[in-house]
Design brief:
Blueprint: E1 3-7, E2 17-18, H1 19-27, E3 31-35, E4 40-43, E5 61-68, E6 71-79
Parallel strand pairs: 1-4
Antiparallel strand pairs: 1-2, 3-4, 5-6
Protein name: HNH endonuclease
Pfam family, one: RRXRR
GO molecular function: endonuclease activity
Length: 84
Amino acid sequence: MTKVLILDADQQPLSPVRISHARTLLSQGKASVFQRYPFTIILKESFSQIKPEQLGFTLQLIAVSAIKNKTRIDMSPFSKRGNR
C-alpha cells in the first residue's frame, strides 16, 4: 500500500496517509503539492491530529484455560513478558 507524506501548515511532518485520502485533500483545496519526489503534500490550515501514542493500550495479564469434557479444568494467569 503506497502512502503519501504529509506536512502540516508549519511544515512539521504528520503520519503518512493513503493515496486516496491525499487525493481527496488536494481536490477539496485543503492541501497542495509540496514536493514531487518523494511525493509530499502540505496542508493549508492547521488541523489537530491524534498522536499514535494516545491510541495504544497495554495488557497486564494473560489467562490460559483448558477444557475437558465441556468442563474448565485449569485457569492460570501469566504476567506479560518484557517490561514488567
